[in-house]
User: Fold this.
Amino acid sequence: MYGFEALTFNIHGGYLEAIVRGYRSGLLTAADYNNLCQCETLDDIKMHLSATEYGSYLQNEPSPLHTTTIVEKCTLKLVDEYKHMLAQATEPLSTFLEYITYGHMIDNVVLIVTGTLHERDVQELLEKCHPLGMFDSIATLAVAQNMRELYRLVLVDTPLAPYFSECITSEDLDDMNIEIMRNTLYKAYLEDFYRFCKTLGGATAEIMSDLLAFEADRRAVNITINSIGTELTRDDRRKLYSNFGLLYPYGHEELAVCEDIDQVRAAMEKYPPYQSIFSKLSYGESQMLDKAFYEEEVKRLCLAFEQQFHYGVFFAYMRLREQEIRNLMWISECVAQNQKSRVHDSVVFIF
Amino acid sequence: MQSSENGVESRNEVAEGEQHILNFLDSVDSYLILMDSLSSALRQGWLELASARHSMGASRVNCALFDLKSHHASTTVQVNNDLPHFKLCKWASSDDPEKYSEEGKFEEDELFQNKSDGPRHRHQELQEKRTEEGGASPVGTDNQIQKLFLQAQKERFKTLSMFGTLVSPKLRATQLSFETALEMLVEISNTRASLLHAYDQVQKDRTNPK
Assistant:
C-alpha cells in the first residue's frame, strides 16, 4: 500500500539508498562547472577534475589528453558505482537496476550490426561499445545477416529477446531496417520498464511513471524532428512512438503528420509541461531543443531525491551522472577546439 | 606624329602593367578572404559535429561507423587545363551515371542562400562576382532547379545514413558546413591559380619593361 514503504523498504533497500544518496553528493556543482569552463587546455580540465571524484580515474592518463579519453574514464567511474550497487542489490531492486542498462544494450547491438554492415572490424566496434550495455555473446552479432538470425543466434538468450517479437523479419539488414529495429526495440524496452515499475507499486511506480513518460514523450519529439524530410512514412513514424506518456494518444496523432519544426511546436504547446520548453525557442529553431529537454529532465530527476523509500533515486542518479558526463564531453570539446564562447550552449547545471 | 604614337603606346603599356598589378592584388585579396572563410567554415563544422555527438550520443556518431565498402564518390573534382582549373561536381547520383553540371551546382547554392553567416555571405559575393565576370547565367526552369535540389537532398541523406537514417538536424548542419568548406577549397585552388597567373604577368612586366 502506497505510503507504508517506510515500514519495510530499509530492510533490503536501505543500505543501497544511502549509498546512492552519497554518490549523489559527489555530482559536480555550478562552481565546478565555472572552473572547468575557464580552462584553457584539456590538461587544465584534468587538473580541475583531480580534485573531484573523477581524480583517481584520470590521474594516470598521459598528456596529451583527448576528449574521448576524458569521457571514457568518467564513464568507468559510473560503471564501477553501478556494479557495486548491482552486486549488493536483492530482488526486485536488482531487476530494476538491470532495466536501467537495457537502453545501452540496444545501442551496442545496433552499433555492432551497423559496423558489421559497413565491413568494420568487430574488435574495433567492441571498443566503442558502452560498458554498461555489454553482454557475453555480443561479439557473435557480427555473423547475423538478418533480424531473424540476429535473434536466433545471439539475442534469444539476452534480456532483449522479448523486445524482438515486433521486429523479426527475414529481410536483410540495411540502414533503414536497422534504424527501425533500434527504435522498435527501444519502444518495447520503455513500455516493458514502465509496466515493471507499475507492478512495483507505491512511490516507485508514481515517480518512475513520470520519469519514463517524459522519456517516451521526448523520444516521440526527437523521432518526429529527425524523420522530417526522410523516407520514413507517417505510419512508420507513428509505430515508433511508445504507447504511454502525456502525448499518448492524441499528441502522437498530431506529431505523426508534422512536416516541420513549427508544426511540432504547435502540437507540443497544447501540453503545459512542454509549452514551457518550447517557449525558450524561437520559431523555426531546433538547435536549443535538446538543451531545453535536458534541463527539464534534470529538474525532474533532482525532484526524485526529495522522497525516500523508492527505487527512482537509482534511476535518477544514473541519468544525472550521464548528464554530467555529457557536460564534461561538451566542455572538453569547446576547450579543445578553442570555442569557449560556445561552452554554455549545451552545459546543463545539475545543482 | 611618330613620337605621339609612341607616347600613346607607352601609356597603354603602362596602363596594362597597372591592370596586371591590380589583378594580382585583387587575386591576393580574394585568396585571403577565402582562406579566412574556410577557417570559419571548418571551425563551425567541427563544433557542430561535437554538438551532434552530444545530442545523439557517442555510439551513434563515431569513426567506427564509416562505411568501408567500395562505393561511388558522391562528389568529384574535374581538373582542366584552362581557367578555372578545378570544377566541383557535387552529389552525383549513385543510381544515375550522369553527374551534376557546374551550373546545376550554382542553382543549388542559390537555394541555400538563406543559410547565411559572415564568411559564407562573403564567399557568395565572390562567387557571384566571378559568375558575372565569366558571363555564366543560371540555366533550367524552376522545375529543373527543384529536381536538382531534391536529388542533392536525397544524396545527402544517403551519405549521412552511415550514422543512421534518423539523424539529428545538427548532424545535417555539420554536413552542410563541411560541404561549404569543400566548395571553398576548390574556390581557393582556382583563386590560387589565378593569383599565380597574375603574379607571372607582373613579373613579366617587371623583367621586360616596354
User: Anything to note?
Assistant: Chain A has a mean pLDDT of 91. The interface with chain B takes residues 68, 71, 107-108, 110-111, 114-115, 118-120, 124-125, 127-130, 175-176, 178-179, 182-183, 222-223, 225-227, 229-232, 286-287, 290, 326, 329-330, 333-334, 337, 339, 342, 345-346 of chain A (CB under 8 Å). Residues 86 and 217 of chain A are 28 Å apart (CA to CA).
